[in-house]
């Protein structure tokens, strides 16, 4: 249960138990955890904190200015020369403080507007998404029969799925994830945009909404640095390149899946359903983790998805000089601190995690090599680090020494690990969710 809770809060969707064992109340708890763990909600909380901080700074500055004005009006009996000097000093301080207050006010207004824009995006996507999914479930007899067979309420499924997809968690209230809906192309087309705007395409959507407000001053503040208005507010050119990069990754992955799986994993589907399933899998391979196909049956296995699962959501092909983040290096030491020198790169840490899990699962690696192999562990670790949720799963059929007590379960591969292995994967999920604070690691290590 702790593993599942961490997986929901870090929007990783790594499963150790079947989802259909949860009651309606437990599904609502998981929904709340996924909602507060989503990237858009975290961004909203950050903007609220920045808004409060700027408001307090402006209030404190106003109190100081009003106090100075009172002191200036207080009658004193010094010499005339001293009075002139004090008046000149006070006037100079007032002139110097005015631009600071104006800049803080501009940042305050920009952050406040961004807060309302992000809040509107959060509410609109969830309300419209849940209603659209529920409407499809009522309109599609096959999908409705699936929910009835699994004893799932339509609105519980709609809300849970919308929150999970938009937060890029990837949990589904069904054991088979989206495999039971691989023929429901309209449902896939409803969920794919939610997965994109909830993470990889959230910066372009935010920039488009800001542009729609007509606030040019907000764009000017954004050019001075994203730390002033929010991590996701990018300049227009960067947003266009980010959108192009995301579309390019999706197109390449969908084309490769279609080329390699057209007559195997996609067999039995119509041409349109095959293309839709390939696109849906490509969209979810970055961070969402919802799957309409069994990954263990893909021809190249998930080697194809390891790279894209590792990449951060804002990965962009940007062959230009980035002016959005300007830093003053004059006030910083040119050397690298001891802490930064000891921090390793992201790949180094993932290698350590893979080795540690191989040690904890060494007995199973020897006794059950077709299920427990290094590639499957790498996929699970990278998927947990990228908060994706893709898994190779576990099959009793692949056991070399068949265990008569082995039963097939719709859980992730990590569900068969030891408790030590699961604890390491919990650390990996936290590490991946907070990787923004360690992305600069490894710079002090010189390999040549």
UniProtKB/TrEMBL annotation:
Biased composition (Low complexity): 73-95
Transmembrane segments: 26-52, 113-134, 154-173, 239-262, 343-360, 372-394, 414-434
Subcellular location: Membrane
GO CC entries: plasma membrane
Single biological process term from Gene Ontology: inorganic cation transmembrane transport
Keyword tags: Ion transport, Membrane, Transmembrane, Transmembrane helix, Transport
Any matching Pfam family: TrkH
InterPro entries: Cat_transpt, TrkH_K-transport
GO function terms (MF aspect): monoatomic cation transmembrane transporter activity
Bilayer topology term: Multi-pass membrane protein
Chain intervals for the UniProt region annotation (Disordered): 65-95
Superkingdom as given in the UniProt entry: Eukaryota
PANTHER family per record: CATION TRANSPORTER HKT1_4-RELATED, POTASSIUM TRANSPORT PROTEIN DDB_G0292412-RELATED
Family statement drawn from the similarity comment of this UniProt entry: Belongs to the TrkH potassium transport family. HKT (TC 2.A.38.3) subfamily.
Name the UniProt record assigns to this protein: Uncharacterized protein
Annotated source species: Panicum virgatum
């Amino acid at each position: 249960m702790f593993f599942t809770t961490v997986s929901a809060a870090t929007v990783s969707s790594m499963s150790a138990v079947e989802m259909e064992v949860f009651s309606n109340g437990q599904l609502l708890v998981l929904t709340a955890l996924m909602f507060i763990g989503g990237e858009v909600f975290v961004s909203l909380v950050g903007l609220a904190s920045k808004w409060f901080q700027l408001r307090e700074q402006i209030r404190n500055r106003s109190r100081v200015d009003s106090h100075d004005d009172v002191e200036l009006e207080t009658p004193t009996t010094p010499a005339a020369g001293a009075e002139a000097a004090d008046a000149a000093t006070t006037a100079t301080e007032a002139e110097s403080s005015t631009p600071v207050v104006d800049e803080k006010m501009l940042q305050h207004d920009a952050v406040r507007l961004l807060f309302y824009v992000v809040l509107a995006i959060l509410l609109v996507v969830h309300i419209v998404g849940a209603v659209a999914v529920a409407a499809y479930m009522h309109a599609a007899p096959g999908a409705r029969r699936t929910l009835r067979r699994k004893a799932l309420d339509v609105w519980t499924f709609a809300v849970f799925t919308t929150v999970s997809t938009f937060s890029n968690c990837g949990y589904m209230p069904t054991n088979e994830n989206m495999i039971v809906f691989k023929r429901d192309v309209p449902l896939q087309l409803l969920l794919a945009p939610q997965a994109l705007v909830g993470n990889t395409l959230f910066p372009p959507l935010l920039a488009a909404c800001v542009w729609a407000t007509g606030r040019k001053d907000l764009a000017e503040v954004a050019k001075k640095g994203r730390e002033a208005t929010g991590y996701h507010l990018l300049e227009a050119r960067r947003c266009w390149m980010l959108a192009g990069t995301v579309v390019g990754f999706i197109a390449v992955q969908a084309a490769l899946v279609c080329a390699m799986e057209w007559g195997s994993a996609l067999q039995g589907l119509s041409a349109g359903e095959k293309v839709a399933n390939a696109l849906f899998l490509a969209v979810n391979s970055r961070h969402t983790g919802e799957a309409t196909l069994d990954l263990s049956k893909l021809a190249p296995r998930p080697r194809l998805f390891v790279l894209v699962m590792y990449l951060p959501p804002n990965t962009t092909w940007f062959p230009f000089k980035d002016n959005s983040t300007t830093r003053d290096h004059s006030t910083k030491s040119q050397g690298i601190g001891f802490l930064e020198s000891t921090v390793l790169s992201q790949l180094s840490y993932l290698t350590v995690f893979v080795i540690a899990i191989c040690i904890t699962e060494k007995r199973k690696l020897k006794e059950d090599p077709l299920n427990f192999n290094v590639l499957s562990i790498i996929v699970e670790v990278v998927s947990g680090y990228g908060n994706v949720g893709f898994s190779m799963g576990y099959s009793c059929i692949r056991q070399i020494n068949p265990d008569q007590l082995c039963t097939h379960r719709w859980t992730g591969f990590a569900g068969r690990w030891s408790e030590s292995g699961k604890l390491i994967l919990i650390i990996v999920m936290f590490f991946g969710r907070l990787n923004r604070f360690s992305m600069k690691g490894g710079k002090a290590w010189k390999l040549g």
